[in-house]
Design a protein that fits this description.
Blueprint: E1 7-14, E2 17-18, H1 21-36, H2 43-46, E3 57-63, E4 67-74, E5 83-87, H3 101-107, E6 115-120, E7 123-127, E8 131-135, E9 140-143, H4 151-159, E10 163-165, E11 177-181, E12 192-194, E13 198-199
Parallel strand pairs: 5-6, 5-13, 9-10
Antiparallel strand pairs: 1-2, 1-3, 3-4, 6-7, 8-9, 8-11, 11-12
């Protein structure tokens, strides 16, 4: 099993250029200061040779006190047609741990659904790999009870495109659609599903 204190950062690559590069480096530096008391050296990332491709790629970086691995892969959006609501009172993913066993355990409860929507302390949080945004026909909202305050989530809040609010499972019926967002996915990418495809 991978040690809990190994972290992962996933950076989008478009046309051979990192997207939101500074924000991702800041998160890595914040994480390394929190756990190791000093900023991680990021020169390896800045100097890495980036593959040039017309397709969107993702750069996956594993690190602890130093950069341990940098790899590039073609990115393919997952199709999500259904989500199973699962409860977990103990999950902590406030940092991007490379060890995702907690999600693997919860995913075993998804049944025939494509992914899970995690409920903690009676409130909606995130899926196994994304923050969520809910659309009520007029406005977009994201739960204020997130597990990870993702970079895309922060950007959308800062731009005013989405708003924070407390969302419980009982409130989901007030919304029309749920969008999955993360560093690779924006609302415009439309990885989404109707709230009628959420299962208790």
């Amino acid at each position: 099993m991978m040690d809990k204190h190994v972290f992962v950062e996933t950076i989008p690559v478009r046309n051979g250029v990192f997207s939101d590069f500074a924000a991702h480096l800041r998160r890595m530096e914040k994480t390394s200061v929190q756990f190791y008391g000093k900023k991680i050296e990021t020169e390896k990332i800045k100097n890495v040779e980036i593959p040039v491709s017309p397709s969107i790629m993702k750069c996956r970086i594993l690190y602890d006190t130093d950069i341990r691995r940098i790899e590039f892969n073609y990115y393919r959006k997952r199709r999500i047609n259904s989500l199973k609501l699962v409860k977990d009172e103990n999950i902590d993913y406030s940092f991007k741990y490379a060890n995702r066993e907690v999600f693997s355990r919860l995913l075993r409860q998804k049944g025939d659904c494509d992914d899970i929507l995690i409920v903690q302390s009676g409130c909606v949080t995130d899926t196994s790999y994304s923050n969520v945004v809910l659309f009520d026909g007029e406005s977009y909202y994201t739960p204020d009870t997130y597990l990870l305050n993702g970079i895309r989530r922060q950007q959308l809040l800062a731009s005013g495109k989405i708003k924070e609010r407390r969302i419980t499972p009982a409130m989901l019926s007030h919304f029309e659609r749920l969008y999955l967002i993360n560093s690779m996915l924006d609302i415009a990418d439309d990885v989404s599903l109707p709230v009628t495809s959420l299962y208790l």
